[in-house]
């Protein structure tokens, strides 16, 4: 565990956007959502880069072969959609895991995740 090829990493990075835009991932509720909001959200939305070998939530684990060009285009499409929707779309938008977030928190979470993995692959 903990090792992905480039295509899997791109698919993995798409999950953050899937959670923001699509209904394909289960929303956290009750005590789980409270725990995520109290303990995980501060790490995800601050400006400090992720540490190496951090824990990955089950929804983000990618298994099986992925096609590089397809996953690259999917990720680029999500990034472009995010840019086109702009800051106001994200202000107060509900997260599957953390509840309502500011546009800055959304921005940090998107950026940090992609930056973390691009650096892993030397980009």
Can you offer a commentary on this structure?
This protein is mainly α. The protein has a domain at 1-47 and 90-123. It contains 4 helices and 2 strands. It has a two-stranded antiparallel ribbon with strand order 1-2. Helix 1 (6-21) runs parallel beside helix 3, helix 1 runs antiparallel to helix 4 and helix 3 (68-90) packs antiparallel against helix 4 (103-120). The longest helix has 23 residues, at 68-90.
What keywords describe this structure?
2 strands, mainly alpha, 123 residues, 4 helices, two-stranded antiparallel ribbon, globular
Task: Write a short abstract of this structure.
The protein has 123 residues and is mainly α. The protein has a domain at 1-47 and 90-123.
- Please state the overall shape, judged from the principal axes of the Cα atoms: globular
Strand order of the largest sheet: 1-2
What is the succession of H and E elements?
HHHEEH
Major beta sheet, specifics?
A: 2 strands, antiparallel
**Radius of gyration from CA coordinates:** 14 Å
Count of distinct strands: 2
Strand content: under 5%
Distinct helical segment count: 4
Q: Taking all residues together, what is the mean pLDDT?
A: 93
Please estimate the helix content: 55-70%
- Termini gap: 22 Å
What structural class should be given to the helix and strand makeup?
mainly alpha
Low-confidence stretches: none
